[in-house]
Amino acid sequence: MNEGKKTGLFWVIAAATATVATFVSWPRAVVQTDNGAGQMLFEKFTDPLAAASMKIVTFDEAQGTLDTFEVRKDKESGQWTIPSREGYPADAIEQMKDAANSLVGVKILDIQTSNAEDHDDLGVAEPALEDLEVGDDGVGRLVTFKNDAQETLASLIIGDPLKDDPTKRYVRIPNQDPVYVIKFDEAPLTTNFRDWIEDDLLQMSSIDIDTLEIKDYTATLGQGGISLSRKYTADVAVEGAQYSLTSMLEFDPNDPRVEAKKVDAPAGQTLNKTKLNEMKNALDDLKIVNVYRKPEGVSATLKASKDLLSDQDAITSLAQRGFYPIDVGPDGEAEILSANGELSVSLKDGVKYLIRFGNIAGVSESGGSDESTEGEEKSTGGVNRYLFVTTMVDESKFPVPNLRAIPQTLEELDAMLNPPKVEEPKAEEPPVGEIKENDAAQSDEPEMKEEETSDESPAEESEAKSETTESDEADEAEMKEESKESSETEATEDTAAEESGEVETEGEGEATGKGEAQEEGDAAAEVETETKTDVEAKPADEKLTDEELQERLEAEQEKITKENQRKLDARKDQLEAAQRKVRELNERFSDWYYVIAEDTYSKLTIKRDDLFESENAAAAAEAPGQGGPQFNIPGFPGN
Question: In whole angstroms, what is the distance from residue 65 CA to residue 446 CA?
Answer without folding.
Answer: 103
